[in-house]
Structure formats: structure tokens, C-alpha cells
Design goal:
By secondary structure, this protein is an alpha/beta fold. It is built from twelve helices and five strands. The chain starts with a helix and ends with a helix.
Amino acid sequence: MDEEVLGEFKIEAEEMLVESEDFLLNIDRGESFEENFNGIFRAFHSLKGAAGMFEIEDLQAFMHKIETQFESLRDEGTMSSLQIDYFLKAVDSARKILDGEDPIVDPDSFDSLGDQNPAPQIQEPALEETKEEPRKEETQEKKSSESPAITKAKENVQRAHADLGKGHIVIVDDEAPICDLLSSIIESYGYSCTTYTEPLKALEAITENPPTLVCTDLSMPKLDGLSLFKAIRRNKVDVPVIFISAFVDNEVLIEGIELGASGFLSKPFEDAQVISLINQTIKKEETRKLLNRSLNFILYQFNDLDNYLQKEGKESLRQNLKSELKNILKLKKTLL
């Protein structure tokens, strides 16, 4: 598969995997299995269908086993702690397969899990009871007793659903006064900001905890804005980037656009220009994510249709539909 197409697929796959982790953690916290079942099954099924369409056969075969195993729990209406742990490891295994690594869970081990350690179910307290805050020692003990799979899944979900208010923006400029000026404009419109005068430190922070948007100066020592953008993409961080510069020549402008820059801010700044570009960029990113979710839903439905067409021997129609879906996915990037 083309590396660029694979990169796009990995981004969409990660959204499905985080979604399934979120629902599995809900069950681990004691929420209803029935209410969370469909969300997990949809994520597993969509990933299997997408992997099949992109002809990633090892991931498709793995997710087929995992989906079948998970579906077998529907009638039981509950999951044990060991089963939750197993499926969280399966989610991480899907990530590893996408990265060309071996899965960390053996699908053949599922049947040996049994019904041990059922996940807790929420109990409604009696009206006269008052809920006491857990002691610090109890909280620490509970955290230390978590399995590594639970801990890692929580980190993934928290990172994906971090509460950043209206949006969190990272500003990178080697001149501190520029950082202060730009952050004061942006924060006055309800966004939160973190500023960096050292691009390498900014890159580390962006990779560890991706923000809503990055504004970076083009001309900086050690690492210029274009190089920072390339490094962000190499680290597989999917975040829109706006460039800042007092002067942008045509070559830099063209290269930035080809890399996928979301826009350019000229110094000196005008409040209206800054906020308009940021609002437009974030709205465009939200549209892209909505389109991704819509395409994921189409892939979810297509998987069942694909199986039906294959059984009916309608190979020509089947291949035409697959080809059209691939074209839609390719056009999506150009469109946005």
C-alpha cells in the first residue's frame, strides 16, 4: 500500500481503536455492558472492513477473530475483568499490526479466560446513604492494582479526549514577545495557549500531547518552521499547522501548501486576521473528522455488503464498489 494512504488509514484506525478503548473502560468502571456493546462492536467491525478494503490481510484476519469473540459475549450480557483486559490488549495488538509488529495477545487464548472476576456493576445507593470521598490511600491502592492494559487505555483515552476548553493552541517562536502577543490575542477569544521559544521542546510536547492547532514561526534557529512541520508529520501527529512570518517568499509558500499547511499569519498581527484564520482552520479540522466518521460508517456497512456480493458471485460489482470507495478516500484529502 502507498505510504501516504497507509498514513491516512492509520489516523482513522486510531480513532476507531480509541473509541473501543473508551467503551471498554466504561464497562470496567461498572457501566452497563449492553449500553457499551454496540460501540465496541461497531469499532471492531469498521476496522475489520476498512482493513479488508485496503487489503491489509493480517489486520483483517486478526480483527475478524476479535470481533467474533466479542460478539459471543452478547448473550452473556457481562464481561469478566480478564476479558476486558484481553480486549484492551487486542486493541493494542491492532496498533502493532499496523506498525508491522507482532500482536501482544494470542487470539487462541480467549476461550481459556472463562467467567472469572466479573466486572463490577453500578449499584444505586440507598437514599439515606451519603457517598464518602475515598481516602488517598484507597485511591492509590486502586490505581496500583490496575492492569497495565487498563492503565495504558486510560492514558490513550485521556489524551484523545483531553478537556482543552474551546481548543488548545501551541505557539512556537524564538522571540518571546511574539509568543506573548499572539497568545494574548488568542486567549482573549476563549482558547488556551502554550508557548515555546525552543522548537525542539515544542516538538516533544506536541508529539506527547497533540494540541488542537500549532502556530509556528518559519524563521527560527536550530529548527525552522517547515522542518518542525515535517518532524510533526514524521512523528505521525495529525494536527493542523499555521505558519507565522514577517515575509513569505513564493517558494516557501508553495512548499508549505504542498506539505498541507493550514494557513499563514503575517507580522504584525491583526486580531481579526488571527482569530478568523484560527476559527476557520479548527472548523475545517472538525469537518475532516466528521467526514472520517461518516466514511468509517460507510466502511462498516460495506463489509457486510462485500461478504454478500462475494457469496452471490457478483465479483465485478464488488470490485467496482471497492474501487469507488478507494477513490472517495483519495479525494477526501484533496477536498479538505
